[in-house]
Amino acid sequence: MGSLKTCLQDLSPSIAKILEIAGAAGASIGIVHQNETVHLPNFGHRDITTRLAPDENTQHHVASLSKSFTAAVLGILVHDQKLGFDQPVFSILKTFTNPDPAVHDRATVLEFLSHCTGFATKQSYNYNNGGYNVATSLIEEVSGQSWGSFVTDSILKPLELDRTFVGVAVPEENYAHRYMPAPDETLTDVGRPTIANGTVKQGAD
């Protein structure tokens, strides 16, 4: 374990450099190995105005990492035989429409999750949010719950992620501000999240 922790600690300069290149104000990372939390490094600032640093309990907006929650709960529905990954979306979600007949009639759940809807060979992809908007509608149609409610009941509560939430709850004070880097490398605070159902995550979870 000692050598593992040393290797992880040695990655800190590289992580800090990546954050600098990306124009990120800060980050909190949690690494779990064999059910043990082995490394909780924090970088930069959670608030650049006050110069406050993040810690393992700082709450962060997860943005597109919410896609992994969407894929996971769809996997739960597949496991429960409520739908299939290879099932055409239109056969489940009758409100789904697309001007391309091939997509409208035959595009599958897995294709939307894989960003390859509309590509004939499925060897190409186009990263976008549209497919996951459809996936969210699928979850709500099949489960009878909102996306946020189903994620909470299926993932957050069973894993006891008590400080991870979905929705518009106001986070506690230890919260990482969201910044948008400008071309001149200045950072603008863009406020609390209004997308991805407000999903917020903390490193210690």
TrEMBL record:
InterPro entries referenced in this protein's UniProt entry, alphabetically: AmpC-like, Beta-lactam-related, Beta-lactam/transpept-like
Pfam families per UniProt: Beta-lactamase (PF00144)
Region Disordered: start-end pairs: 186-205
Top-level taxon in the UniProt lineage: Eukaryota
Beta-lactamase-related domain ranges (all copies): 20-186
Segments of skewed composition (Polar residues): 196-205
Family label: Belongs to the peptidase S12 family.
Protein's name in the database: Beta-lactamase-related domain-containing protein
Lineage of source species: Eukaryota, Fungi, Dikarya, Ascomycota, Pezizomycotina
